[in-house]
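Risk register update: the risk of archive-format incompatibility is retired. Evidence:
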Amino acid sequence: MNDEPKSDVDAAKAAVCEAVSDFYTPTGRQAVGRAAGGFLYPQYLTPLEVLHSVDRQRQLANAGTNAMQAVQKTASWQVRGTSVPVSERIRRLWELTDAIQNGTAARLEAEPPQPVALATLPDTLARRAGETDADRRFRIVAALT
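Archived output:
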């Protein structure tokens, strides 16, 4: 495993997201953090918090040109050295970010995050019947964020 710091381009190329689930991986979150840092850092937010909160996603989308710049930066970093047109990658990233926002809204509407307290922590962390690992992770992180 290589622990050397990656450049923004290397981080983006390591996280070429083609599915919504790709954004939730460590490399996907790192790419989001690099590209949207101009929005995240002043707000004291992490990519994990944005990915699990429809309110934070809307805040990013409505924060001037921050979302557009993040998508454009990521797309240009990811296509560097390839024959893929940057406009095609931008289009795909917008499709995925729209799907993330819609999916997050649907998940949180179906089951709003419950406040976490010491007494409710075991229930929050407990595996539920028929729940996938991805759904459980989303539910727990949404409650914690």
